[in-house]
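Entry, Tuesday afternoon. Goal for today is a structural model of the target with copper (II) ion bound, before we commit to ordering more compound. Inputs were pasted exactly as handed over by J.K., no edits. I checked the ligand SMILES twice against the vendor sheet because last time a stereocentre got dropped in transcription.
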Amino acid sequence: MSWRAPQGGGPRIPGFDQGDNVFSGGSAGGPPLLSLIIAALAVGLVGLFLAIAFGGNLGQGTAAAPQPTRPPAVLPTAPPAVQPTAPPAATTAPAQPTATPSRPAAGIPTEPLGPALASGTGTPIEIGTDVALLIFDKERVTVPNGLVTLTFKNLAAAVQHNWVLVQGGDEVASAVNDVAQAQVRVTRDAAGAVPPADTPGLLVASPMLDPGDEVTFTFQTPGPGTYEFICTFPGHYVAGMKGVLVVE
Ligand SMILES: [Cu+2]
């Protein structure tokens, strides 16, 4: 303002005059220019504060939202599918009870034996034992010559029995029974009192049966005649456990 005072007196130079206009323009807008700068700075500061304020809020708001939704969706679905399938593998006990009843001792016959043993089927007969006494339920059985299929049942309540057919009468039966008793010493078990297949005078012998058991087998009769059958369990033949098979 003060430096514009000589405006009316001095000569005017076109170039200078233009510069004067430039300066005059600047002097006339001086106060508004400062106010514009201050206002701009103020707006900038306010904007900066707003940017920081909203930026922080927006940043926290957007970052916090996705975190809580992810973890619960993955954890509950995976574990329950794998664990329930493993436990049902502990089933080994039921197989043992069925294997124990079989006779473990070596040398004790478990199948019928003897030179007269045959395959196929023949005349069916059935012979049992008394429930308590040491006797067969039949003293005399008659069959035609040929194949005979016998079903022998131990009907005793608590005693083992077997069925042994010999080629002869009491004399042969006694000798076969003696051989059977010798087998008890070999097998160290009364169930082993069965004559071996090559015993002289033996035709066919069943294994020793537990009470309630039965066995079916086929044998070839040696021809028409009378043949004694006995039980070779220790003491039974001596006690009178015997019968006669008549072959016609
Ligand atoms: Cu007997």
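The pocket of copper (II) ion is lined by residues 134, 161, 231, 233, 236, 241 (CB under 6 Å).
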